[in-house]
Fold:
Amino acid sequence: MTNPGKALPEGATSFARIQAGMAKRRAAERRFKMLGRLAVSVGLLFLSVLLISIVSKGYTAFWQTQMRIDVVLAAEDIDPEGTRNAETLRKADYSSLIKQSMRDMFPEVSGRRDKFALYGLVSNGAAFDLRDKVMADPSLIGTKVSLWVPADDDVDMLMKGHIDRNAAEDDRRIKDNVLGWINQLEAEDRLELRFNIDFFTKGDSRDPELAGIRGALMGTIFTLIVTLSLSFPLGVAAAVYLEEFAPKNKWTDLIEVNINNLAAVPSIVFGLLGLAVFINVFGLPRSAPLLGGLVLTLMTLPTIIIASRAALKSVPPSIRDAALGIGASPMQATLYHVIPLALPGMLTGTIIGMAQALGETAPLLMIGMVAFIADVPQGVFDPSTALPVQIYLWADSPERAYVERTSAAIMVLLGFLALMNLVAVLLRKRFERRW
Amino acid sequence: MSPQGQAMAFKLDGAAGAAHVTTVGRDVRETVGEVRVNDPRVRCTDVNVHYGDKHAIKNISLDVGKGEVLAMIGPSGCGKSTFLRCLNRMNDTVRECRVTGEILLDGEDINSRHIDVVPLRARVAMVFQKPNPFPKSIYENVAFGPRIHGLCESKADLDVVVESSLRKANLWDEVKDRLDDVGTGLSGGQQQRLCIARAIAIEPEVILMDEPCSALDPISTAKVEQLIEELRQQFSIVIVTHSMQQAARVSQRTAYFHMGDLIEVSETDRLFIKPRHQLTEDYITGRFG
Structure:
């Protein structure tokens, strides 16, 4: 490259020299373009591998094997006195009714161990389903009802093909006799894959077939509402003050350095801080979305401040001059002209911060949002967990059925993320269109 | 273009021969000429500006009369814009900038620490070198000043002010059908006239213009210059310009700055035809600048 015209005779014109170098320059141009395309393709490849692996593993979780059972609702078992009292109805032993119906279907099963295996075909949740049904309609008592209840997770796995029917019995979770019962149930059309509504309406459970994402999803939503409503106003106000009003001296320099450092602090440290300050000093309820939101606010603030300051810096000074030059006070100039121009950038920073907060697990572990919580939280003070923590918990669980639920939870998380980004893009479009 | 302006343009081209003799040599930095006027709008006395260690404006005294256009000319970096920005305290926004001396606006010292700069800038409005309309509608651009200062009681009042300001800025006919379009969508010359309309909407006493035509084409420049001539009836105007022809065309008095010193102030005709200071003559005959 030092002398592209070396091969040319002495005294060649500049144009000839330029022509001689063109092939080389074009080739370099092409190489550069190829490199860029390669980078993009590799990125897309990894992304699609990730998505395909998650979706292919997880989509089955949206279906759940249900079993049809016929239960005799004998009045003497449920409500011997005939009061139809709600308390009596609630306390009745429905699980023994279900066991009875299983025994009726397979009268040949005997022996304690086999009976136990038989009862295990149907989920523990079936008794609750039955109870809810009876309580909703007490007139069913004394009749024989036929209802669909969730099958046990092992049955579900077998139906979905995750357990190999042809494997040797010792390598199979479902033994031959149980397999026989399942085959019989299938033959009687008592097993069916149905849309898994429970996954979206229930909280976590020790039984995979009953475990749902709603608790974690609501926890995440409450946490993010707290985070957003604290970190956006605080972050923007801090950025506006530092950028537009604060004097430039060593104190503000110090603050700036510290904000930049905070942005790089590992998130678990914020969790420890939350544990030490919010729980131990202020006595906030542990495991609550309020607490999670506060901790994530601490973590998100630096990101929002830095992005907002960059957005404010990019507003041309001529706009400030224009406003000040006709007598606007600094606050008016900032409020009416500078902030509206910086708002799209601020929103971008906020959404990046919120996306970070959405995916954050470590600080939540420190403040107890990793606890097993089966109830769906109703507000920011109820104990709850969050989507990424739920993913972590399920990924850690030994049951085979949690594998697909883990992937399904990741899909919900990604969907939520996409939704948030969509809202951000729409908001930004809206603000930009005004100019 | 005024008749005297045309005469000037001719003179400037041919004056290099210096038919007359200047009376003050290059080494003298005392201001020559008529610094003071009767009944001034602005009276500056011993104004100094420091940027950190740099002494940008040295002991300048200068008056701005009522209803006059004062042009400030000089080579780049001579301090004319800095001086202009003293008149409405825009230098306050510059870090490490110190302004000392007395600047009286209608007899009141506006360089005092006790002066609130916000109402001051409503009295001394500023138009900048690069047209800088707000990225909002044309209407909003003009309405912003009256609105923040609370000059209009009702929307109807505001409409009247916007229309009259745009009319005074000779822009009304061009934009009356698209007041809701964004101001930044106008041409450069229209944008600058919009900025002028925005400034006059708050009825200031003085309008400062910092090279208002340097980013404009000749036709837009002519329109702005004509506008300046019309606005002189109502406002005092101080204009910084790189173009001597422009100074000759629009101003009644001209001040020549050189490296932070005010070298010469005269009636515009006199300054360009018979400069008294050797530096002024060097500049207007194109020996440097």
